[in-house]
C-alpha cells in the first residue's frame, strides 16, 4: 500500500511534466510557423491550396449545422418570449447569440473536426514516411514549408466560416420565427440593433481568426509528432480534435471576459 500511495504522486508528476513539455513544444511550433510569415513567396501556393481544401470540406457541413441551430434557438427563445409578450425580441436574441458566441465556436470546431483531422493525418503520414526528416536533410525547414501556410489558411477560412454561420443561422431563425410564429420581418431584424454593436462583429471575427490558428497549430503538431504506424496517426487525429476543443473553449472564455471588460454590453 505504501508503494502504491507513493507511485500515485510520481505518476501524476510525470504526466504533468509531460503535458507542460508538449504545451511548450506546441507553442514553439506555432511561433516558428509565424516567424517566416513575411516570406510569402515560399508558401503562397500551398496557402491557396489549403484554403480551397478547407473551404470545400467545411462549407456545406457548417451550413447544415448553422441552419437547424438557428432554428432551434429561435423556437426555444420564441416560445419564452411569446409567453412574456415580447415575441419581437426573438430576432435580437437570436442574432446576438449567433454573432457573439455561436459563430466563432462553430467555425473553429468545424475547422478542427473536418479540416484539422485531414491536416493531422497528412502531417502524420509525412512523418511516418520520413518525409519531414528528408526535408531537413535537404536544408528545408518543414515548419516553414508546411505549417506556415496551414496556419494562415485555417485562420482565413475560419473567419469566412464565421460569416457563413451568422448568415445561415439567421436565415434558419428567420424562417421559424417569422413564417412559423408570425413575427413581422421588420421587428425580427430591427431588434438586433438594440443588442449588438459593431465591436461585437469585430471580436467575433477576431475570435474565429485566433481559433483557426489554434486548430491548425494543434493539428500540425500532433501530426508531426505522432507515433509510427497507422495506429499512431489515428491516435494523433483523436488527440488533435480533443486538445483543440479544450483550448478553443478556454480561449473563448478569456477573450469574452476581456471584451466585456473593455466594451461593456449596451442595453
UniProtKB/TrEMBL annotation:
It comes from Actinomadura logoneensis. The chain crosses the membrane at residues 53-73, 105-125, 151-176, 201-224, 236-255. One of its GO terms (cellular component) is ATP-binding cassette (ABC) transporter complex. InterPro entries: Permease_MalE. The keyword Transmembrane applies. It comes from the Bacteria. PANTHER family: ABC TRANSPORTER PERMEASE PROTEIN-RELATED, PROTEIN TRIGALACTOSYLDIACYLGLYCEROL 1, CHLOROPLASTIC. This is ABC transporter permease. The keyword Disulfide bond does not apply.
